[in-house]
Amino acid sequence: MTKVRAEDFASALVKALKDYTSEIEEDLEDLKEDNATQAVKELKASSPKKTGDYNKGWTKTKEGAGWYVHNRTNYQLTHLLEKGHARRDGGRVPPKVHIAPIEEKYVRTFEDGIIKRFQK
Predict the structure, then answer these.
(1) Distance CA 34, CA 114 (A)
(2) Is 60 strand, coil or helix?
(3) Looking at the 3D structure of the chain, how many domains does it have?
(4) What SS3 class is residue 71?
(5) What is the pLDDT of residues 32-58, one digit of tens each?
(6) Which residues pair with 68 in a beta bridge?
(7) What was the pLDDT predicted at 112?
(8) Which end of the chain is more exposed for a tag (fewer CB within 10 A), N or C?
């Protein structure tokens, strides 16, 4: 702990708060990127594999302050596979739910990581 003169207290407090804020921002950025990386790995492992192109297409992208997980090669199939769709003969193709469980898992993981970080 450093000693601060009374007239320098305000500037020392501002500096300490800025340091703390930047430390938290770095930790949150690491947490976001780690979650996105792990989600991509799990999606590649759990996605339906007919030719393999769909599951190989999962990637993460940084946009603004967030990381986004998406399928860069066959993004059109995500909704059809996740929700099911109609067939030409009038029947239905059943859904293959593979995105929602991973999304829910990593939302919880992110929330738990934030809570753990602020309890330090």
Answers:
(1) 13
(2) strand
(3) 1
(4) strand
(5) 999 999 999 999 999 999 888 999 999
(6) 61
(7) 96
(8) N
Q: Is residue 63, in this structure, part of any structural domain at all?
A: yes
What pLDDT, on the 0 to 100 scale, is given for residue 46? 93
Rounded CA-CA distance 110/32 in Å is 7
Structural domain includes residue 3: no
Percent of the chain's residues with pLDDT above 90: 78
pTM equals 0.83
Q: Where are the alpha helices (DSSP H) in the chain?
A: 9-46, 53-56, 75-83, 100-118
Phi and psi dihedrals of 66, rounded to 5?
A: -120, 165
Q: For residues 116 and 120, what is the distance between their CA atoms, to the nearest angstrom?
A: 7
Residues 74, 54 contacting (CB under 8 angstroms): yes
Note whether residue 1 is domain-resident.
Answer: no
Q: What is residue 39's DSSP assignment?
A: H
